[in-house]
Amino acid sequence: MRAIFPRMIRGEFRGRLGGFALDASFSVPATGITGLFGPSGCGKSTVLRCLAGLQHLPGSLCDVDGDVWQDDSTFLKPHQRPIGYVFQEASLFQHLSVKANLVYGAPRGDAGGAAGVIAFDEVIELLGLARLLDRAPRNLSGGERQRVAIGRALLSQPKLLLMDEPLSALDRLTKDEILPFLERLHARLSLPVIYVSHDITEIERLADHLILMRAGHVIGVGPLSDLQSDPALPLATARDAAVNFAAIAEAYDANYGLLTLRVDGGRLLVPSGPVEPGARRRIRIAAGDVSLAREAPRATSILNALSARIVSTSPVGPNEMLVVMGLGPNGNGARLLARVTRRSWDQLQLAEGIEVFAQVKGVALASERGVSEATK
Ligand SMILES: Nc1ncnc2c1ncn2[C@@H]1O[C@H](COP(=O)(O)OP(=O)(O)OP(=O)(O)O)[C@@H](O)[C@H]1O
């Protein structure tokens, strides 16, 4: 008999759709946001449709937090799966108000207060929907419509929320307006989410775990920062490579407007408004914003020079090296990426295993309500 694991989402989907062959296996925690990322046509939406039961590929397997949704003898139909589904374009009922749209599909009876139940008032507050409740969908902007669609999906009390490129039909400004709402949902709700996107910025801001796909296959699965810093995967070698990791606010210096953040293996100083000690933040450090030194730099305007150890290197193109470091003197902390020229690599006599100082020129600091870019 097949072992079923609680608190995991597992899929093994294989089969042919016309000329497209899918063979995608993954196992991710049933908590937080899992990004499903890869180039157009690699099979992301097909995997999501398999999870939802909208696509039946015989011989596939799917279990979610201890419940079997598909195996050789089981195939739950979409309406039998406790899922919320948010599509690229919100399809709201035009003849119903926003409020009626929101409660459409919500379980009947008063479930208010029950453990794990997502309350109406909480959804309204998290998604900023209070002043829209009496409106008709035709009087909403694209971003507002999508927020209502997300609210409706949440109020159906799903065990798993599936989001298929929920922001891709929106312009850049509207995306930026909605992302903070998604960050708040992420911070406040424990509901697991599978989030399909081919936009790395969305993935970097939202995802805890990642399923990386290419041509119908899963080429990487794991915590976001592990995949970002794996030189064998395309994220680390991309021009805009970066790592994201968690930071905890430690102290705030109002005199200089500087926040001290504790990260795994070190501390960072970041220009910022006041932040309560203990608050969690997600930070992003781009490979292009990190330079290396063999000794602790003394007279420099750069705020952050972190002790780190080189854990791996690989050439990118003819004249550059991708360097993966682990923060802290032992190199056991958070991973950081840097790109250095081959000349600097030789001149500094860099090598795997040696201790370096990672000079960080820019740190993007994401909060529950948005992102501020902090430099130098
Ligand atoms: N029912 C079907 N019949 C035949 N081919 C299909 C079917 N559904 C999907 N495909 C093909 O499978 C491939 C993967 O499609 P899918 O929509 O899953 O990719 P995707 O990664 O989500 O792409 P995008 O980012 O462009 O939405 C595509 O080549 C698509 O044309």
UniProtKB/TrEMBL annotation:
SUPFAM superfamilies: MOP-like, P-loop containing nucleoside triphosphate hydrolases. Residues 299-369 form the Mop domain. Pfam families: ABC_tran, TOBE. Keywords: ATP-binding, Cell inner membrane, Cell membrane, Membrane, Molybdenum, Nucleotide-binding, Translocase, Transport. GO terms for cellular component: membrane. The keyword Transport applies. GO terms for molecular function: ABC-type transporter activity; ATP binding; ATP hydrolysis activity; molybdate ion transmembrane transporter activity. Residues 6-240 form the ABC transporter domain. Gene3D superfamilies: 2.40.50.100, P-loop containing nucleotide triphosphate hydrolases. Belongs to the ABC transporter superfamily. NCBIfam families: modC_ABC. Involved in beta-(1-->2)glucan export. Transmembrane domains (TMD) form a pore in the inner membrane and the ATP-binding domain (NBD) is responsible for energy generation. This is Molybdate transport system ATP-binding protein.
